[in-house]
Write a structure and sequence with these properties.
Number of helices: 4
Helix content: 25-40%
Strand order of the largest sheet: 1-2
Structural class: alpha+beta
Shape: elongated
Distance between the termini: 44 Å
């Protein structure tokens, strides 16, 4: 019988058994290696509450603690919530991880590097450069 995925949809590899976790959405019992994981970092208070708290606070700068928790979803719940999308047979072969979104500004560094590389390439338009490595 043909295999749909190289890893059979799991990350178990050599282990015989894996503990189960509960899906956050449906409550289904899912093997931990098969579940779609999402690590959530959130402020304890929403934006409007933070503004009110900042105005009423005695301290000028107070860093509120954040909530950190890991959420597990079953495959069907993750598809329903549009956390993951089904891919074509050819696209399933692509194993490169999706680009990571990091709140806090690390994305700008990549853009700045690309801009400087483009500027360097534009400056060297008259000469041909070769790289050996």
């Amino acid at each position: 019988m043909t295999k749909k995925r190289r890893n059979n949809g799991r990350n178990k590899q050599g282990r015989g058994h894996v503990k189960y976790v509960r899906c956050e959405s449906s409550g289904a019992r899912v093997p931990k290696d098969k579940a779609i994981k999402k690590y959530i970092i959130r402020n304890i208070i929403d934006a409007a509450g933070m503004r009110d708290l900042g105005e009423a606070s005695v301290y000028e700068q107070y860093a509120l603690p954040k909530m950190y928790y890991k959420v597990y979803y079953s495959v069907s719940a993750a598809i329903h919530l549009r956390l993951v999308k089904n891919r074509s047979r050819l696209a399933r072969k692509d194993r490169t991880p999706p680009p990571r979104f990091r709140p806090g500004g690390n994305n700008n560094n990549n853009n700045n590097q690309n801009k400087t590389n483009n500027n360097n390439n534009n400056n060297n338009t008259g000469t041909a450069t070769t790289r050996t490595s």
